[in-house]
Write a structure and sequence with these properties.
Chain lengths: ~230, ~230
């Protein structure tokens, strides 16, 4: 295993971010159980949450393997991720589903970035995690089915999805300023493919945010929602 | 696999009770995360909760294998188990640990009863679940270590443990009245070993409660607490 000293600090940051994102999702899903419409759905929710815990555990072990203190790697992301959850607390089961889909989608984009940029062992970890997140289509299907029954929900849920991504981008902006090495890592590919603008990393990060927003729009339409 | 019709309804009840107990523990542990003293402990708590979810899932699948509707089997136990959790909400990390130990201990006693009374496939399931609950010694050790540092905590935690088991027996009494077939099953062994008293199942159930209380006392002293 590659030791921490030889690993890009941005990769460590990205692993720490994703590890805490998975742990935060675990607790958030468990919290949302009160919104579940049935005992069976509560049980399914527990199953989804347990999968987040497994991913957290894989990422944490991976950090330990790099000789890195995993809690130290996660700490910078606790406040922004907790803030995102606090500002986007679902008030209904459908809002919770949309949040799961949007949050998993953004996490998936970050996992893909990680796979592009990191060592083969980290790539293999990412593939393992992403192979298991086959629930996206299930969640999108549930939202589409609810919209087919009650089309008037679309407006409110579209607003909700916009708020979810808006709050995420706002937290991400703070993280990008506080963690320049992570920002540089995430911006690298964008920089390579475009003419330098002289605006530095923040401009590149903005372009990366634009690409995340694009992914978000694709996910909205997969759920039957509009911008 | 044996079909539901040929399975003792008391065994189905016991499986339903334990399945919902595991699901309830999952959500309770996730809830208690706010009490965890560190990010690392929060992560460990998520791991314990995920194990409860796995046991829930095993028990639920086992009920499905019996041709039984698993949610129907769990439903009679939702109210009493939720009531137990509501009446015993931990106010500190140590209270949460003591509750985990006491609750797991009682569940363990019920699992052992299930193994004594059920078919070989159910016995194998119970052995699998019990083999994984090796955390009891870890939790008891944590409580003992905290008491060694602050011996004055012992009185309050002993009271807390007494309340936990008192509330559990009170809920169990209700369940025994409402589910006579489960009561009969749990009382069977006690009946076989003793002279009939003419008081019927409730007296036998009381004797079973006495044996559960004995187990509880043993667990108290394992944690360094007194009656």
């Amino acid at each position: 295993m590659i030791k921490g000293s030889s690993v890009d600090p941005g990769v460590i940051d990205l692993l720490g971010l994703l590890a805490y994102a998975e742990l935060g999702s675990f607790f958030r899903l468990a919290d949302d159980a009160v919104l579940a419409p049935s005992l069976r759905t509560r049980g399914e929710l527990a199953g989804l949450a347990a999968m987040e815990q497994q991913h957290y555990s894989l990422l944490r072990d991976h950090l330990v393997g790099f000789g890195v203190d995993p809690e130290e790697a996660m700490t910078p992301f606790v406040r922004p991720l907790d803030a995102w959850h606090e500002r986007t607390e679902p008030q209904s089961w459908l809002e919770s589903l949309v949040k799961t889909y949007v949050g998993d989608g953004i996490a998936g984009d970050f996992y893909c970035k990680l796979a592009e940029l990191a060592d083969p062992e980290t790539k293999a970890l990412v593939e393992k995690v992403l192979a298991e997140t086959g629930r996206a289509e299930f969640v999108a299907g549930q939202v589409r089915a609810a919209l087919a029954k009650e089309p008037k929900l679309a407006g409110r849920l579209s607003l909700w999805a916009r708020r979810l991504v808006g709050e995420a981008l706002s937290q991400a902006q703070t993280v990008a300023v506080e963690r320049p090495k992570l920002a540089a890592l995430l911006a690298r590919e964008a920089e390579e493919n475009e003419e330098p603008t002289g605006l530095g990393d923040l401009a590149a990060v903005s372009r990366m945010f634009a690409s995340l927003t694009e992914g978000h729009l694709a996910r909205l339409s997969a759920m039957g929602l509009s911008e």
